[in-house]
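Title: Comparing notes on inverse folding

I've been comparing how different people in this forum approach sequence design from structure. To keep things fair, I'm posting one structure and asking everyone to reply with a full sequence. Here's the target:
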């Protein structure tokens, strides 16, 4: 005996099948290799870069309008051996940068002070400014600038990248009082 459906049941079955087909089609369109969830995303405002197993995370300068500030970052050693942070200095204008960003209006002269050799232990993160000792000072970069820097390590290859200069109160939880 053949199964027969009423016209109402037939329409419901057809609509359900169409909805399932449409949802599979829409899902498949966004699941390819170019899906936004597969694209790199940097939630921080600073620059990320890497050399071998050394990862520089969220490197930026917090500075006042007169061009005096401090370098902030985390440097993580994910390599198989200890390394050292040897220097951080202004890079030449024609130096290629690792992350592809090119400073548009780079300041003429930027200097880094209080840079000292620091040990990068395997599996640990070094925070700049360090919890003990003086911060790395930056002179010449004003908020809104991009500074081209070269970060040199004892074992890992140097990193040349561009880092942003932000205002001193960038991380302030409340706006400055007017007055």
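Reply #1:
Here's my take.
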């Amino acid at each position: 005996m053949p199964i027969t459906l009423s016209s109402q049941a037939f329409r419901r079955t057809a609509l359900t099948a169409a909805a399932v087909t449409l949802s599979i089609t829409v899902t498949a369109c966004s699941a390819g290799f170019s899906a936004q969830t597969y694209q790199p995303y940097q939630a921080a405002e600073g620059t990320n870069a890497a050399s071998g197993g050394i990862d520089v995370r969220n490197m930026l300068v917090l500075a006042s309008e007169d061009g005096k500030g401090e370098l902030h970052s985390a440097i993580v050693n994910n390599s198989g051996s200890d390394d050292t942070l040897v220097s951080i200095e202004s890079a030449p204008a024609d130096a290629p940068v690792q992350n592809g960003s090119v400073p548009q209006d780079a300041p003429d002269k930027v200097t880094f002070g209080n840079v000292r050799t620091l040990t990068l232990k395997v599996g640990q993160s070094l925070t700049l400014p360090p919890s003990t000792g003086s911060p790395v000072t930056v002179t010449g970069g004003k908020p809104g600038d991009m500074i081209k820097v070269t970060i040199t390590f004892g074992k890992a290859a140097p990193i040349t990248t561009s880092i942003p200069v932000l205002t001193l109160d960038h991380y302030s939880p409340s706006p400055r009082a007017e007055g």
